[in-house]
Amino acid sequence: MERGEQLYCHGGSRTIEGSYEVCCIPFYAYGLALGDVVGRNESGAVDRLISKSSRRVLPVYFAEPRPLTDTRSALRRAVESTGLLSEWNGDHQIALDVPDISVMQSIFNCVQEEIESGTAFWEWSDARNFRSS
Question: pTM value?
Answer without folding.
Answer: 0.89
